[in-house]
User: What shape does this take?
Amino acid sequence: MVNTSPPVYEQIAEVIRRQIHDGDYLVGDKLPSENELCEIHKVARGTIRRAINGLIAEGLLESEKGKGTFVTSPESKTLLWNFGSLTDRLNDTSERALAKVLEQTVVIRGNRKMLRLKRLRSIETENTVIPISLDISFLPVDLLPGIEKYDFEDESIYRILREKYNRNPTQSLVSLKARIADQGTKRILKELPSTRCLLHATGATYDNVHVCIEESEITYSSRVQAVMHIDHHNGYTKPLQMTKELHHVHE
Assistant: This one.
């Protein structure tokens, strides 16, 4: 009788793939060493290596020389330079925008009372949650009375501004730079230990009468795909609204 079972290395790869899918291993987790996996599965090292290499090729694992093998995630297809609402834009897709509030408190910033809102923004796709950014927003309490009472895990900031306060975000001025990633930020965004720098944005968002309605600081995950549209007009290349479009991907 012909043996129709898949090769042993494929069976082991499927076991690890299922463990990742079920959450036994999360993004950023380190897998057991090759020797430990050999003991667990009772196979030779070459078999384990073939299984691991296959999962690396799929984008589920990433190997760091001298450090080990870590769970990664498929690259997010979210466009960094995209003026619009992430929550609204994903409504018609199989993906879902998620927000986890890490801090929500009223503070004094300058001479003004502001709501400081710190959130982890993620996208859920195919049963996988992909961290996108760590956002800190400052919202003026005097301009937006009662803003501190809203649940920003269920509500989009910009939707609340439009529907509850008649403040329509129309323009963001944003400054971008690479910044050394601290351990706390890397842990929250589930970055690999080897990650050194992440893209950081600071800026302000204005409504249709040019009143500042939000100040923000955003650190982007290394999984975000940075895309800038270029307009080839009259024989030269011109960036299209780069500073304006970046910030609004996160609502």
Remarks:
- The mean pLDDT is 80.
